[in-house]
Design brief:
Its main location: membrane. It contains 45 helices and 33 strands. The chain is α/β, with parallel strands linked by helices and about 1250 residues long.
Length: about 1250
């Protein structure tokens, strides 16, 4: 016997343990581990965790190899790891077709299998017989492959295998938006086989993507072709979604102990130390017991009350498992490793003792970790009453190798045989350490000398594109095309990267290719796509958002980010560089922009400090010429050297002909064709503006129009009625013929159709008699009019009419360069002109008619959905469509158009006037802005579950109508004419609830400005071309009553945004426990929801919210929410034991209203002028004959109650509390005393 140091003896002991418990079970042919002696299935995840102890031990031996024997042991242990990793690789490579298919479909049946036969490595169950889609298992494989390769093991042998691994990276790229079955293979916890988005899968995928990036799979012996490439943005998306989910695991699991593997070893996927602590503490407090942690709340697996004869649970039976869920010692092993990595010896010792207490000692003295501890059947009732009081019994496999392996790692670390850095050679554990500030490098290039000189006037020195040679500048779409060549392999039938998305992190690197260097402009500045890039102010704000995003998200990358921007002719506004651009560029010179450090310079100077990636995968690898560019790439790059953007038609540029009164009359008859398509519905009754047209028309250029009557600017309605038409268009640019006199006594508006009581849909006004006039009109006369009119709006109306009657492809009979010109061609020209003149209403409408797509609409919707927000599109109350899962671009657009389709009215059904293109475009635009905000300011969306875009549009129009004091129709015109930047600004003000005012910036475009002052200036500040709108605003001093309407507005906004108080849904859950149901709008929230769902579960919150959303008026919805809050206080302070039967929440609100009106009558308050009038009974609420309130309050509740603050003697909470007290007084037996402690 050789002499052995103590450490050597101890290691020999661990080697025997590892041999006996783990290596003895490894299959000699495939290298895989069967699940148990009686079950030869090998799960990917379990196999990977099993081998970790072997890998750890091999590194421990390597360090003390004082004899040849130890070196041999090291090698033997290492090769066992290689054997297993290659066994899994071979099993997955047999399913290469699935990897290829899954990249496109992301369908559960196309996923790689989660388990294989340990004897043959082939599949053991069919695609649809198991929840195979488990992204965390594939991600764990890639993560451990990366760590083992970095520690010096050679696992991948050939370039074909490298290509397969590269495609596995694409397979997990979409983890952030792919619902899967997760770490417990069951998806939704009812186990009905419904996949869901799991935080543990997303976290593991993020870790794998970061670990694989720029990793050479051949280790130190490799070259450029064995390197794996990952687009940094994919990991960043996972990171963002993970941050928004934790500590929640999924929709049905509010918490899961499996998250321990994400916040600590092996993934280390979270880089916010507070979130790590919060997640760990929540798991320990809610799931930890004496024998380990529960997997998640109400987990029925192996509990005595589970019915073993069926796989799934009934929703109502989940309640039975509360407090008797099995406890898994496995999670003590995770916590032990976590404390090892933190260097926290106190907690490490404590958990090691806890674990060793519950381990089972076998005859040979080796301690084993059992799979789980369950409550015995006869003790379940007692355990439920007093959790943690009963002894539990071990069930399942013993030893549970997954846990045993982690336990051995923990012991090796605790006893000092391993250092944490050896288990984590890629240093993932350091991701939550504080990093130095990122400096964002910014390069501005001019398209040509002319633009360079214009920038020079502002003291901005830039280079032109030709001056930065040999560096080449390309748009982002070129980079996205180049990345499609990554991972292609003919032998394996793999086609490379499918996703076309390259984010800002990817375009902020420089790329080297052979001897060339490329810089790419950001994707959201690709001009060809979309009108939002035509608004310089929006571009500037997008740019600053990009800089801030880079400042936060640029991690784990060598070098600084570089944003390359191109100043093109295209950005010029009437030959000038827009001020928004200049001010932003000047800010850049200061070195800081919005708190992010920036440095402005030339590309050449930044070469040494930038992050540079080598595009080595573009070589002709498979043809055997790795150093020669792929011929397809070569030709693509030659084609795509920057082209200029000038292709314009000149059809509409004709000299204006002389106009006749007859032609004018005809033109008037087509006018308003666009306006007829509108579907934004601002309820004019609640705005109290019925039938009164105040406010000037947008965009009136000619003074002769503004001077007609000093008291009020003329309403275009009048002009319209003279010519029997249906509504004017947005931007009538100067119709100055003397034949139209405008007078106040013009004919009253046509009577409204009956049947539309309150919500006067805008279009009802526009049903007209002039149908016959169009029909007689010859198409060629219209086209002649089209040529002679100067007004873009009239051109728009004529084209809208032509599209409605003849379709887009109709040949107009004109010719341009020998080709026939279709209506579509004319629309394109009009779109270009409207863009250059910044007539945004027309731009949105023509963009919609041309079917232009909003940049990345599908991506925007996905960004919102994966952060657990549902979206509805279409106009409430009857036409909303909910989007709950990511959809492809074309389906989304179709859904948005369908949801805004107008119902046909009366004799209107001969021809519906097309869909509401403008609002459809606006919906898409708002979705993009909402996604921008949720990426950069997620705190705006706290306590909001569903974003109802239609309602948000209506509230935006209402807000404009309030601020501009104009009627609903005009407000929606103003809304559609806001520039994209102002639209985004208005949306931001509404989301954040800031007060705002509106300034005019010439040509009828408005700008939204925050009210910084503490006095709420409700009056708008619109001034049109030097003429005051409401006389002169400045004269009237702003007095206190101006604050009127503030709380009504607040409630309206919160109701429209579905915002609720903190922990609202958990509290409603507690109320449901104490009554037999809550009734809202005739819909019942049943108490059995609490049987099925836990209080913090997202599914429960959505169930409550769906019922609340059936209330059409947002301010009324908010009062109902307040009433529910009062009920929750009754329950929380245990004022009563039970609330009795079902509670109709609206009754509480109406009761509160009644008490409010009685109070008002008593102290003769403001409400005596409307609802509390003499003779108007409290019940009637001062309703007129039509049943509407005089004051315009929604749902029969006085407007003044809506406008009361929540607190105070006359506050809404006071009245609601009195209403609840009245309810309890009716329900409780008279002799029972009520606890009434005054707080």
């Amino acid at each position: 016997m050789r002499t052995r140091s103590n450490s050597g003896v101890r290691l020999d002991y661990y080697q025997r343990v590892v041999h006996k418990l783990i290596l003895d079970h490894q299959q000699p042919v495939t290298g895989l581990f069967p699940a148990s002696p009686h079950n030869d299935h090998a799960w990917i995840r379990d196999n990977l965790y099993c081998i970790l102890a072997v890998w750890g031990l091999s590194m421990a031996f390597k360090k003390i190899a004082d004899q040849d024997e130890d070196r041999a042991k090291t090698y033997e242990l290492e090769q066992s790891c290689v054997k297993l990793m290659r066994g899994l690789l071979m099993a997955m490579m047999q399913q290469k077709d699935k990897v290829e298919k899954f990249k496109s479909t992301q369908h559960p049946h196309d996923s790689l299998h989660a388990k294989y036969s340990s004897i043959t490595g082939r599949i053991v169950v069919k695609d649809n017989e198991w929840g195979h889609l488990q992204i965390d298992a594939i991600s764990l494989y890639l993560l451990i492959l990366a760590q083992m390769t970095a520690s010096g093991l050679q696992i991948v042998f050939s370039l074909d295998e490298v290509a397969f691994i590269q495609n596995l990276v694409f397979y997990i790229e979409s983890a952030y938006c792919t619902p899967d079955y997760g770490i417990w293979e069951r998806g939704d916890k009812t186990n009905h086989g419904l996949p869901e988005l799991n935080a543990s899968s997303i976290g593991m995928a993020k870790a794998a993507l970061e670990a694989m990036n720029e990793l050479d799979l051949f280790g130190a012996r490799g070259g450029p072709s064995s390197v794996i490439h990952v687009l940094a943005d994919e990991a960043q998306k996972c990171q963002a979604v993970l941050q928004s989910m934790l500590p929640r695991e999924s929709n049905s699991k509010e918490l899961d102990s499996g998250l321990l593997s994400i916040i600590s070893y092996p993934a280390f996927a979270v880089d916010d130390p507070q979130l790590i602590t919060k997640t760990r503490d929540t798991i320990v407090s809610k799931l930890q017991g004496k024998y380990g942690c529960k997997r998640f709340l109400r987990d029925g697996h192996r509990t005595p009350r589970e019915d073993p004869s069926r796989l799934y649970y009934e929703p109502w039976e989940l309640r039975m498992f509360e407090n008797i869920e099995c406890e898994w010692p496995l999670f003590f092993c995770y916590l032990i490793l976590d404390y090892c990595f933190q260097g926290d010896k106190v907690n490490l010792t404590e958990y090691m003792q806890k674990l060793e207490k519950i381990m089972i000692r076998k005859d040979d003295g080796i301690k084993l970790v059992p799979e789980l501890y369950s409550v015995p059947g006869d003790k379940a009732h007692l355990e439920q009453i007093e959790p943690g009081s009963q002894e539990r019994i071990p069930l399942g496999r013993c030893p549970f190798i997954w846990a045993q392996s982690l336990y051995i790692l923990g012991k090796l670390l605790q006893e000092g045989f391993l250092a944490v850095g050896e288990l984590d050679p890629l240093n993932r554990r350091l991701c939550s350490e504080k990093k130095p500030d990122v400096v964002v490098q910014i390069v501005i290039l001019a398209e040509d000398n002319e633009i360079r000189d214009k920038l020079l006037e502002y003291d901005l020195h830039v280079q032109t594109i030709s001056e930065v040679a040999p560096i080449e500048v390309q748009p982002a779409r070129v980079l996205s095309h180049l990345y499609t060549y990554l991972g292609r392999n003919k032998k394996l039938g793999l086609s490379g990267r499918k996703s076309r998305d390259v984010g800002i992190l990817s375009t902020s690197k420089l790329y080297s290719l052979n001897e060339r260097i490329f810089a790419f402009t950001p994707q959201n500045f690709d001009y060809e796509e979309y009108y939002m890039t035509r608004d310089p102010a929006l571009l500037a704000s997008t740019f600053t958002a990009n800089v801030a995003f880079l400042g936060m998200s640029w991690k784990q990358m060598l070098g600084r980010p570089t944003i390359t921007l191109l100043a093109t002719q295209y950005l010029l506004d009437q030959g000038k560089i827009p001020m928004a651009m200049i001010t932003t560029m000047k800010k850049l010179k200061s070195g800081y922009i919005n708190g992010t450090r920036v440095t402005l310079g030339n590309l050449g100077d930044f070469l040494s400090t930038s992050a540079i990636t080598n595009l080595s995968f573009l070589g002709s690898q498979e043809e055997g010429y790795p150093d020669k560019l792929n011929p397809q790439v070569q030709s693509y790059l030659e084609e795509h050297l920057l082209r200029s953007f000038s292709s314009r038609l000149s059809v509409l540029a004709r000299p204006p002909a002389v106009r006749h009164a007859r032609a004018l009359r005809r033109r008037m008859s087509v006018r308003g064709a666009i306006k007829k398509t509108r579907s934004i519905n601002v309820d004019s009754d609640t705005l109290g503006m019925e039938g009164e047209y105040v406010g000037s028309h947008l965009l009136e250029r000619k003074p002769s129009w503004l001077e007609v009557e000093p008291g009020r600017s003329p309403s275009p309605e009048d002009a319209k009625k003279r010519a029997f038409t249906k509504g004017t268009s947005t931007t009538s640019l100067g119709i100055t013929t003397p034949t139209i006199e405008i007078s106040k006594e013009s004919t009253p508006p046509p009577p409204k159709e009956e049947g539309t009581v309150k919500n006067v849909l805008l279009r009802n006004r526009t049903i007209s008699e002039s149908q016959n006039i169009y029909a007689e009109q010859e198409t060629d006369e219209l086209i002649a009019m089209l040529r002679e009119t100067e007004s873009l709006d009239e051109q728009g109306d004529i084209l809208q009419y032509l599209v409605d009657t003849h379709g887009l492809e109709f040949n107009t009979g004109m010719q341009e360069n020998g080709k026939h010109v279709t209506v579509k061609d004319l629309l394109k020209v009009l779109y270009e002109k409207a863009c250059s003149q910044k007539l945004w209403g027309l731009v949105r409408h023509t963009a919609g008619m041309l079917g232009k797509r909003v940049e990345d609409l599908a991506k925007a919707v996905t960004d919102l959905l994966v952060r657990q927000k549902q979206i509805t599109v279409g106009m409430p109350p009857n036409n909303e469509h909910t989007i709950i899962a990511p959809l492809p671009e074309n389906e989304l657009r179709q859904l948005i158009h369908v949801s805004l389709r107008r119902e046909k009215h009366g004799n209107d059904d001969k021809k519906a006037y097309g869909d509401d293109e403008s609002t459809a475009m606006l919906t898409q635009e708002l979705l993009v802005y909402l996604a921008m905000f949720i990426r950069t300011e997620p705190q705006l969306f706290l306590e909001m579950l569903r974003l109802r875009v239609g309602l948000i549009i209506q509230v935006m129009a209402t807000e404009l109508s309030r601020t501009l004091s104009c009627d609903g129709e005009e407000a929606s015109e103003h809304l559609l004419n806001l520039s994209p930047f102002e639209m985004k600004n208005l949306l931001h003000h509404i989301l954040s609830g800031k007060e705002f005012a509106i300034n005019s910036v010439g040509r009828g475009n408005f700008s939204i400005v925050s009210n910084k002052s503490n006095r709420y200036t409700k009056k708008s500040q619109i001034l049109l071309e030097g003429q005051g709108l409401q006389g002169t605003i400045d004269e009237a001093p702003i007095t206190e009553p101006d604050r009127q309407g503030q709380w009504l507005r607040r409630r309206r906004l919160d109701g429209a945004l579905n915002r609720v108080p903190r922990d609202f849904y958990q509290r409603v859950w507690a109320v449901l426990e104490k009554c037999q149901g809550l009734v809202i709008q005739g819909k019942v929230l049943q108490p059995n929801l609490t049987q099925e769902m836990t209080s913090g579960e997202l599914k429960f919150a959505l169930a409550v919210e769906t019922v609340l959303n059936s209330i059409p008026q947002p301010e009324y919805r908010q009062l109902v929410v307040e009433a529910l809050m009062v009920l929750t206080l009754v329950v929380e302070y245990k004022a009563v034991n039970h609330l009795g039967g079902t509670i109709t929440v609206e009754h509480l609100v109406h009761k509160a209203n009644q008490i409010f009106l009685e109070d008002q009558t008593r102290c003769s308050g403001d409400a005596t002028l409307c609802c509390a009038k003499e003779g108007a009974g409290a019940g009637a609420g001062g309703a007129g004959a039509a049943g509407a309130l005089v004051c315009g309050g929604a749902a029969g509740v006085c407007q003044l109650l809506y406008d009361s603050a929540p607190s105070g003697r006359f506050g809404t909470m006071t009245y609601l509390a009195r209403a609840v007290a009245a309810l309890l007084a009716e329900r409780l037996p008279a002799h029972e005393p009520v606890e009434c402690a005054i707080t």
